[in-house]
């Protein structure tokens, strides 16, 4: 009897504990910008001394097409024995390493099973030059693969975090993880750790209070280099991060010293030389070389810095191999291309050699790495639907949750909300509002115009509220609250509820379905109002907040007692938003979450029991160098929850993407992936929007296409006419020196540099910057036009 009573009390305590986190069994659905389109896999191309251009048949897909796989690393021979000891079948190991050619080995980051981990793959493939390989290029078709996770359950499932940038040296793996809370708002959790492969013993190498990114271990393993903004912390910069390069001892993180101011993504070629990227004063991302002194103190002052790649194109994320003084691999963005590609840069001839553009010109290729023997270059890209295999497109991706009673799902859409019956999800694309069954079936477009945010009426079946109009628009933009009644799928009824069209958005109904709280720019500032749910403003309007600031993104609590919203009232117009609570009668205003200096806390949503709030925030700063990823408007934003008294702040997501617009579902969804039953194209994502900003003409740098050469001719001719050319001008440029249909020409930088002083021109470009939620026109003034002739 006593044991039964104890069991009863235990179960009651367990249920109460679960209720503390939003109710016994619930789910949160959120958006990650672009993530479900990535479908990254690790690929590789051979590097040959003859510099023959690669072909489609040379490329090998190394990873297996499950989830996303990226940021690979070819392990050195010194690590092979330790890695092989992880494999469960040692007999198989002896068999596969007896083949000719030897198998490919790669360590990489993967997000399979809804959690970030590091994996080791050994892949046996045909000789890439064999006839058989020409018929089947993909590693999905290799006849053998051995695969094993490097980090155990304790470091993966028990400590949910983002893993990144693995390096193998001896019997240790060096990598980034975000599993330790800094305890300070707007501070990155990214730190470098060392884990012994066999025992799993882990040591933190980054000092507490500091964030480190992009580790690179020297060939001997003695030192590790990282990108870090050190003790100064993150200042909100979202492109370069204002990082410097630090080095320290790999064994324990001691003897840490800054060697380069302004740089990122270090890569060692020997014990005293490393390469890194930075955006130069001319605004081009370029590769630089840092040479450490052979004797004496190592410091910023004693390290020699040399620029390696020329202006005229963006070059970044350099890769080296031990002792290789002949070439490096880089990712590039050229003015003539919308795609990121991998190229080799010849350090002797100072010229580029194209690789991936010749193989798949219409795909982005990211973050190269070179094999220890310098014979292969690896990278990741979207795998697409090659080899006749249709890869499933996920509608909901289950993400491993650090809270046992909350399941997490990433949705292929924005601003999701679930109907009161928990059977239909509404979400937006730009443009359009959609509804789809919870199992991914019966996807239909219920509104054609542009809209943002969705929420269901809690009482009237099939009624969705949204803000119809442009997103991220000024206060005077025409945006209205509308209701969309989809109860009769053959007769969808759309009704406008607001009357003035002055940026009315983010509706949230009261739990009895009678009223709606929303934000409006009626007075020239975005404040909160309450109106009738069925008749809109015509049925009555109550002003809830008032002031020269922005109150927005409101959510009504399940018990009707509170309204949560984001506001910049603490610093109007400063771009920083914090979380507030207020009663529907306008009393009891209080701040719930402070986001830190310049920080953001947005999109609050109450838990089903009304005791907690989920929201998106930059509280955890940035987790990786932004340039190592593809398109995002802001390289931060994680999903957090907090109780209404401000306690028990919990981070739910860990990645380097942009998570946002969470919705807390009233029931627990089965923690499995949900696929679209429709065929949807993948790989439809763009590169970083700020890489599209080319500082100026880049004629003659590296590889030029015919159009670019023709433009060079036209400008040269014009300058001849107006008498602006100096002597030694561009006068020997022939048609055959431009890029033809099959070849390329290499400029020798900085062999000849013609500068035309006092020439000024302006170009206007429209740049939508969502991080500031404003649209602005920028004028780029180029004071000196530099032309580098062929």
TrEMBL record:
Pfam families (alphabetical): PD40
InterPro entries registered for this protein in UniProt: 6-blade_b-propeller_TolB-like, WD40
Keywords of the record: Signal
Record's protein name: Uncharacterized protein
Protease recorded as keyword: no
Signal peptide annotation: 1-19
Transmembrane segment boundaries: none
């Amino acid at each position: 009897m006593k044991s039964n009573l104890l069991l009863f009390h235990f179960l009651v305590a367990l249920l109460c504990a679960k209720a503390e986190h939003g109710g016994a069994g619930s789910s949160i659905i959120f958006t990650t910008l672009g993530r479900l389109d990535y479908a990254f896999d690790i690929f590789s191309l051979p590097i040959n001394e003859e510099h023959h251009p690669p072909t489609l048949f040379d490329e090998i897909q190394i990873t297996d097409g499950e989830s996303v796989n990226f940021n690979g690393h070819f392990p050195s021979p010194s690590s092979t024995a330790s890695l092989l000891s992880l494999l469960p079948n040692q007999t198989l190991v002896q068999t596969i390493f007896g083949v000719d050619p030897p198998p490919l080995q790669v360590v990489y980051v993967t997000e399979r099973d809804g959690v970030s981990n590091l994996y080791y793959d050994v892949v046996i493939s045909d000789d890439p030059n064999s006839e058989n390989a020409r018929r089947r290029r993909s590693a999905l078709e290799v006849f053998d693969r051995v695969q094993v996770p490097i980090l155990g359950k304790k470091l993966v499932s028990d400590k949910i975090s983002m893993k990144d940038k693995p390096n193998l040296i001896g019997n240790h793996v060096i990598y980034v993880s975000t599993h330790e809370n800094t305890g300070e708002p707007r501070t990155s959790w990214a730190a470098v750790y060392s884990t012994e492969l066999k025992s799993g013993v882990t040591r933190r190498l980054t000092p507490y209070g500091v964030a480190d990114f992009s580790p690179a271990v020297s060939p001997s393993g003695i030192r590790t280099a990282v990108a870090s903004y050190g003790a100064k912390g993150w200042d909100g910069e979202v492109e370069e991060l204002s990082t410097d390069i630090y080095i320290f001892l790999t064994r324990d993180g001691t003897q840490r010293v800054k060697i380069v101011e302004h740089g990122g993504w270090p890569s060692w070629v020997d014990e005293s030389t490393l390469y890194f990227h930075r955006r130069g004063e001319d605004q081009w991302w370029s590769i630089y070389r840092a040479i450490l002194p052979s004797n004496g103190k190592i410091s910023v002052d004693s390290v020699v810095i040399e620029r390696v790649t020329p202006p005229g194109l963006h070059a970044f994320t350099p890769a080296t191999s031990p002792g290789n003084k002949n070439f490096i691999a880089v990712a590039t963005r050229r003015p003539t291309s919308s795609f990121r590609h991998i190229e080799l840069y010849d350090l002797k001839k100072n010229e580029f050699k194209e690789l991936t553009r010749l193989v798949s010109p219409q795909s982005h290729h990211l973050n190269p790495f070179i094999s220890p023997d310098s014979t292969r270059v690896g990278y990741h890209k979207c795998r697409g639907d090659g080899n006749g295999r249709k890869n499933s497109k996920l509608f909901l991706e289950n993400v491993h949750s650090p809270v046992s009673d909350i399941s997490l799902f990433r949705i292929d859409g924005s601003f999701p909300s679930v109907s009161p019956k928990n059977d239909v999800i509404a979400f937006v694309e730009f443009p359009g509002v959609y509804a789809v069954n919870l199992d991914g079936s019966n996807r239909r477009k219920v509104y054609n115009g542009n809209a943002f945010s969705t929420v269901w009426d809690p009482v009237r079946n099939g009624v969705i509220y949204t803000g119809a109009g442009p997103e991220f628009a000024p206060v005077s933009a025409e945006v209205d609250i509308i209701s969309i009644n989809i109860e009769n799928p053959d007769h969808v009824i759309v009704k406008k509820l607001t009357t003035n069209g002055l940026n009315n958005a983010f509706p949230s109904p009261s739990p009895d379905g009678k009223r709606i709280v929303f934000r409006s720019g009626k007075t020239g500032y975005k404040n909160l109002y309450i109106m009738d749910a069925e008749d809109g403003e015509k049925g009555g309007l109550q002003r809830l907040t008032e002031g020269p600031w922005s109150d927005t993104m409101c959510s009504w609590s399940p018990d009707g007692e509170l309204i949560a919203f984001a506001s910049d009232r603490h610093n109007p117009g400063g771009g920083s938003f914090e979380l507030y609570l207020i009663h529907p009668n306008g009393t009891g205003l209080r701040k719930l979450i402070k986001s830190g200096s310049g920080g953001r806390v947005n999109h609050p949503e109450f838990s089903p029991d009304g005791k907690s709030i989920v929201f998106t925030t930059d509280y955890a700063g940035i987790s990786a160098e932004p340039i190592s990823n593809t398109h995002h408007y802001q390289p931060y934003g994680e999903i957090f929850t907090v109780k209404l008294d401000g306690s028990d702040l919990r981070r739910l997501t860990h990645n380097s993407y942009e998570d946002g617009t969470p919705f807390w579902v009233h029931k627990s969804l089965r923690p499995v992936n949900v696929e679209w039953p429709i065929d949807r194209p993948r790989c439809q994502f763009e590169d970083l929007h700020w890489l599209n900003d080319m500082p100026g003409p880049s004629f003659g740098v590296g590889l030029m296409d015919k159009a670019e050469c023709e433009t060079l001719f036209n400008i040269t001719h014009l300058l001849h006419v107006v008498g602006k050319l100096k002597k030694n001008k561009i006068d020997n440029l022939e048609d055959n020196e431009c890029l033809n249909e099959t070849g390329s020409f290499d400029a020798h930088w900085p062999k000849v540099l013609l500068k035309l002083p006092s020439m000024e021109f302006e170009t206007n470009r429209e740049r939508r910057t969502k991080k500031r939620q404003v649209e602005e026109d920028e004028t780029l003034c180029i004071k000196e036009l530099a032309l580098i002739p062929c």
